Amino acid sequence: MAALLTVENLKTYFHSYRGLVKAVDGLSLYVNQKEIIGLVGESGCGKSVSMLSILQLIPTPPGEIMSGRAMFDGQDLLQYEAKGEKMSSIRGAKIAMIFQEPMTSLNPVLTIGRQLTESLEIHLNMEPQTARERAVELLRLVGIPDAKDRLDAYPHQFSGGMRQRVMIAIALSCNPAILIADEPTTAVDVTTQAQLLELMQEMVTKFSTALVIVTHNLGVVARYAERIYVMYSGRIIESGLSDDIFLNPHHPYTIGLLKCVPQLGETREEKKLVPIKGMPPNLINMPENCAFLPRCEYSLERCRREPWPPLTQLEGQHYVSCYADIREKP
Amino acid sequence: MAEDREAGSKAAGKPGWSEAAQHYSETRRMISVFVGRPLPVIGLVIIVLLIIVAIFAPLLAPYDPYKMDIINKLEAPSAQHLLGTDSLGRDTLSRILYGSQTSLIIGVSVIGISSVIGIALGLIAAYFGGLLYHIIMRFMDALMAFPMLLLALLVATLLGAGMKNVIIALAIGMLAAPCRMMCGVVLSVKQNDYVLSARAMGMSNRRLMLQEILPNAFPPLLVMITIGLGATILAEAGLSFLGIGITPPTPAWGGMVNDGYKYLMTSPVLAISPGIAIMLVVFGFNMLGDGLRDALDPKLRGVV
Known about the structure:
The complex is a heterodimer. By secondary structure, chain A is α/β, with parallel strands linked by helices. In chain A, helix 2 packs across helix 3 (128-141), helix 3 crosses helix 5 and helix 5 (160-172) runs parallel beside helix 6. In chain A, a hairpin with a 2-residue loop joins strand 9 and strand 10. Chain A has one domain (5-320): P-loop containing nucleotide triphosphate hydrolases (Rossmann fold). Chain A has 10 helices and 12 strands. In chain B, helix 5 packs antiparallel against helix 8 (176-189). The interface between A and B is medium-sized, with 36 and 23 residues.
């Protein structure tokens, strides 16, 4: 089956006065139909920037997409506007995105109903009345009680969790092929987080939408994602099925990440949480070799000499970008 | 604040949750802030009176403001002529009442033209940024470099007197302020997550500007427009006083002050009464603007 979205060698750089920031530096990934993908990495590793690049939402200047392709539906999204097409016909209609901050992602002066019906009217050319009925249905689907009344409410009358539910409803309103959720649960508390993730899983199944969960929280993706990409300083350093990553990690960074997640049922004596030493790299003027090298416990002489190791296949869908051959049970 | 909380808990506890109840309380808070102090109310009353007088001037005025009566010129206030007559024997009260029409027409059309153009330019400059921003804002800087009245004076001298030209002159003079303010507000509003969110949902630039950004940038503009109305009326009076504003037979307060001040020693009421009218109206607009700012600005919530 051909992938729905294929990103190849995406490079998004920011020109800052202190130098070139290689926020995304040669990222490749693909998303299949109806698949749930996890994109994991620490803050500032380029997760959000890569997703925003796909939708051409990077502010230019200072940002610039240097190279790469993002094939969707036979078209390269990165060249889409250059060919005279409008990205706005893709955004929301084919690929939708929800953001981290539910508290500020809704326009405070427009009613929930207006914000829901708007995209229906734009992308699906619905009549206002039909759009309104559809909006009520969508609100009900995402679990807003009293949906019909709440359509005329303003965002400030909703809680954070409810707003994120509304965002999910808006994002799925036009039945997009892919939903990108950029840290969708970071700003809400843990119980709401679980509810929202359940809801998203349920909704994407219902709408046959592929879901990309961008997060720094391994726990979030562990349960829902079928495949996982681990990102570090602008690149994918390990990818594979969820089981490959969690049960059989190969990259020192992935191993380190898993070591600092507590396991239920383990006492402090049985397993100590081990933090990854050092700091995330500064992305300005990066050296050519592996960015994780300064923090790596398994570094070899070769890592210092040679440039960043390419992603190589281990088995099946499991790819890793590391010279050292490590197998360690987390 | 206590009122808000009360309304919120009432609304949440009620089974048939009604949105109107809670929304109303916010509007009511604004009204109560506005009405709570005397000055904004006085301002509002003055402005409402001005509008009523302007509309019903033909009914209210005891005489035709153009009718000359040379025999009874420069009369002191009396029962026939409450504010006396001017050098051509025209009734001063009638001319002041009709003059309110001139002031209001000029104020509204100047502010209308300058804020529509200014807001549009400011919005475009701040939204698109880059070269467009610099071209528009440097042009506005150039306009701002001249004192407003001086600029209007220059344009009015070039175009000649008359109501249409006064409107054009003042509109150019008043252009920079709303443009700059809009630009500043939009620069901050467009950074909001909901704008990015709406963009990610495929909204066009036009929709983003008009629907996502403009309503959120509006409250400070409303205040500026109200205060600007007062300033425009004052500027128009200034131009008319200098003789390059409204052409003579049309009653205009500035022109009347100019006519009257020659007789300041003998008939002081001629210059003073239109002067008071100008002062009251400008004061009214400023108080109204201040009141609106206090009511609309969420940062002042709880302070006033």
